[in-house]
Amino acid sequence: MSPEFFPAFNATMNGLTAVLLLIGHSFITRERKQINTHRNFMIAAVCTSAIFLSSYLYYHFHFRLLTPFKAQGIIRPIYFTLLTSHTILAAAVVPMVLVTLNRGLRARYDAHRRIARFTYPVWLYVSVTGVIIYFMLYHWFR
Questions:
Q1: For residue 23, what pLDDT band results from cuts at 50, 70 and 90?
Q2: In this structure, which long-range contacts are made by residues 77-85, counting pairs with CB atoms below 8 Å and at least 24 apart in sequence?
Q3: Residue 94 and which of 63, 84, 126, 127 are 20 to 30 A apart at CA?
């Protein structure tokens, strides 16, 4: 597989994860409380995130390609601030997702809710900023 395939594929997986998170979250609101549908969407989000992570690691271990950010001016510190926050939170969210998923699947709903309150916005932020970083790096500021 060509190395050019991976950045767009990875951004697609991040975007799909964000959509699944938003939909999954909507099914567990106070009004809806559709636990099974919520669970299915969140498991799908875990799957797309796992596919992303596998693809991302494969790409960087096999091709070791770094794409420099060439834009100048005010957008440069904005990009690197976004990239830094994305990278730190991406590392932090992996164990958060695993703990949250484990508690939900074991029907430990009170414990699940306590951590999901933090996991959901961090995971959503990481997924959305991954797509933004892709567009900034490959499309908007080339």
A1: very high
A2: 79/133, 79/136, 79/137, 79/141, 82/129, 82/132, 82/133, 82/136, 83/133, 85/125, 85/129
A3: 63
